[in-house]
Write a structure and sequence with these properties.
By secondary structure, the chain is of the alpha/beta class. The chain contains six helices and 13 strands. Strands 4-3-5-6-13-12-11-9-10 form a nine-stranded mixed β-sheet, with helices on both faces. It has a two-stranded antiparallel ribbon with strand order 1-2. A two-stranded antiparallel sheet has the order 7-8.
Length: 299
Amino acid sequence: MARGTGIRVLTGIFAVGLTFCGAATPAGAAEKLRVLIIDGQNNHTWKNMTPPMKADLERSGRFDVTVATTPPAKSPKEAWDSFHPDFSKYDVVLSNYNGEAWPKRVQKALEEYVAGGGGLAIIHAANNAFEGWPEYNKMIGLGWRKPSFGDRLTIDDAGRVVRTPKGEGPGSGHGPTHPFTIKVRKPDHPITKGMPAEWLHAKDELYHGQRGPAENMEILATAYSDKEHKGTETNEPMIWVIPYGKGRVFTTVMGHVMGDDDVAIECPGFRTVLLRGTEWAATGDVTIPIPDDFPKSGK
């Protein structure tokens, strides 16, 4: 990792302090938003991903962050019995989790929290999680699933949303990591307002063929999945939002980290999307500005 970490371990919670550079501080002195990051299992290197995201959020001056870490995979039931985050204490929950199913009581608590007005932020492989949890699938809209699981949404070259029915077309996947251009589709949405129409994201996994209920989705940005990189030759969703009850869910499938390869989450574009998406999920508005080092062009 490019940044040093100092870690203080609490029961089931990691408090992490990191140095940070490059984020802008929002104007004014708005009350800090309370964020709960959940990690603990992932097919990506979550231990190298949570600390810099936590540092980015805190360095912005807009957030206070707590981290709740689940038991490791294949833990006994007794370990899961002690995992009971109180979502009501937070303005937004950020998931960096992709692993075993949470206990039903925790699933129900998250459903009630978001439906009651809470925010949920889904980062990269967190959209791979919980295939068997129907309400989670509604919250995320699209996830890493087989073609038979649900519909697929893409954007054609004219900017129209294309819905591919379940069972047709490719399932979820990605080619080799590479830099790719993000195209903003909703320039007036609070998260993307002020961003360049196109900007170059750092080397990352370009997800394609995501499947799900895909209901009430607003796709904010896409990336072209090029055949040269084993892609689908269409514009795949990279950032989207969904209402769930009175709450808001923000998803970005950018943010791949494997081992010490953290190029994707070091990208100023990703870091800005993380901050602004999390703030929007918490409040429905965005005060965090676009930083000076934001990528200017996708060319």
